[in-house]
Design a protein that fits this description.
The protein is an alpha/beta fold. It has 16 helices and 16 strands. Strands 5, 6, 7, 8, 9, 10, 11, 12 and 13 form a nine-stranded parallel sheet that branches. Strands 3-2-1-4-14-15-16 form a seven-stranded mixed sheet. The protein is globular. The protein binds guanine and zinc ion (ZN). Zinc ion (ZN) binds next to strand 5.
Length: about 450
């Protein structure tokens, strides 16, 4: 028996998860149960296996939800997204630096208003759940209120979520600017209030090197040293104009990434979005220090930034997760992100297999965040966050699915044709957090 009925629930259906990276382990990296059972006790995985083998171990009066005909996978992990940019998704006609000035800074300036921040945070997290994303690493804005809003909303939904106050003390409008000292003090207060509370974690968040002084970057390193276990999130080497600007602002640096390295900001739990215009030495430094890359395909295409080199990242041994990067990105759906990731790899002469794609969206993302001991797969004891995918969600998806004969083909159809409509349900700690109702 895996527990008493009161605290045990079970979910029956086709189940898939990963125990490692398919790019390294091949087929040995995944576990697949065509008729499986996922047993959850107190929000964590208590058992997983073929339904016919383990049904007998479930208490007779435990609720067993029947998801047969659907595919159950671990909840998706979005390693880079800006909740405050929800309202400027799909903003026309600019590349990164102009896009920031024209659309991003004005919309982020509104997050000093706690009511506005709360309303956007609620909408944003509901959207994540509608898309099957159960963990995200999130940029707030310069304002402390923006951090309180996203953490309060995440905690109300029992989500495992990382977020932080954006630090920027130069080259931005006054409405979104802090100072090195105020940014340090505000971050410290927010770490004390939120880091380690329930499933929440704090990330020191220097936006990117051009909008921080050297003093601010130095204080970021100090915050990390003073608070072991906290995270860092930033952007690096996204756009060629940005790279040239960093070379002007930091003339002593060997490369853009070297600026962060200089201040001790490459380390485990540091996640850098984009990582497009890097060289071999940069990738080696990321691997050696344990920092992670967030591959943001929809954003990289939408802002015309360039093509992420997934093979080089893998060959260098760097941790990689996927990011939607909304509002630079064009969708909060991890399935849409996998579609565009596949195309980015195609343009780079590489192939993203469906197994590796779903690994990156789940356990790979969790490993990039150093949360793979808690989420990302159905290993016994892990937190039971999962998504239930519907292969018949749309007429075209159903039609294509009918012709699939292998799991790989099925996953590929989900990632190329799927979106929020394919998310039948999302569960957080075993409990239902979203169920699709409309067609
Ligand atoms: N670089 C600095 N800030 C941002 C941002 O908000 N979005 C993207 N895509 N890149 C950035
Ligand atoms: Zn970003």
């Amino acid at each position: 028996m895996v527990g008493s009925a009161g605290d045990v629930t079970a979910f029956r259906g086709e189940i898939l998860d990963f125990t490692g990276d398919p790019a390294t382990l091949g087929d040995a990296a995944h576990r697949h149960f065509p008729d499986g059972l996922l047993v959850v006790r107190n929000g964590c995985v208590a058992a997983l296996g073929p339904a016919m083998e383990i049904l007998a171990s479930v208490p007779a009066d435990a609720v067993v939800t029947d998801y047969r005909g659907k595919l159950i996978v671990p909840g998706f992990v979005d390693t880079h997204v800006h909740y405050a940019q929800t309202d400027i998704i799909a903003s026309y006609g600019a590349q990164l630096l102009e896009w920031l000035e024209r659309y991003t800074f004005p919309v982020e300036a509104c997050f000093g208003d706690p009511d506005h921040a709360r309303e956007v945070a609620e909408f944003f997290l509901d959207e994540l759940l509608r898309n099957g994303t159960t963990t995200a690493m999130v940029f707030a804005t310069t304002h402390r209120t923006s951090v309180d809003a996203i953490f309060e909303a995440a905690n109300a939904r029992a989500l495992r979520l990382i977020a932080g106050k954006v630090l920027m003390d130069r080259n931005v409008p006054a409405s979104v600017r802090d100072s090195a000292d105020s940014g340090y003090a505000d971050s410290k207060a927010l770490i004390a209030r939120w880091h380690g509370r329930d499933r929440l974690a704090y990330a020191v968040t220097p936006r990117f090197a051009p909008t921080s002084t050297e003093r601010q970057l130095e204080l970021c390193g100090r915050l990390l040293d003073e608070h072991p276990g906290i995270f860092l999130q930033s952007h690096v080497a996204e756009n060629r104009g940005e790279v040239a600007w960093v070379a002007e602002l930091y003339p002593w640096s060997r490369s853009y990434l070297d600026v962060y390295d200089h201040y001790g900001l490459l380390r485990p739990r540091a996640v850098y979005a984009h990582c497009i215009h890097l060289d071999a030495r940069d990738r080696q430094r990321m691997a050696a220090t344990g920092a992670a890359m967030s591959f943001c395909a929809t954003s990289n295409l939408f802002l015309g930034s360039g093509l992420f080199d997934a093979r080089a990242a893998h060959d260098a041994g760097v941790r990689v997760g996927l990011g939607t990067d909304v509002g630079g990105g064009t969708s909060l759906s991890m399935l849409r992100t996998l579609d565009e990731s596949y195309k980015v790899c195609q343009l780079a002469g590489q192939t993203l297999s469906p197994f590796r794609a779903f690994y990156l969206a789940t356990l790979g993302g969790a490993a990039a965040l150093y949360f793979d001991d808690r989420i990302g797969s159905f290993a016994i004891g892990k937190e039971a966050d999962f998504v239930v995918l519907d292969p018949t969600a749309t007429p075209l998806l159903a039609r294509r699915m009918a012709r699939t004969t292998t799991l790989a083909e099925k996953l590929f159809a989900f990632m190329i044709l799927g979106d929020d409509r394919a998310v039948h349900a999302t569960h957080v700690l075993g409990a239902p957090a979203h169920r699709r109702t409309s067609v």
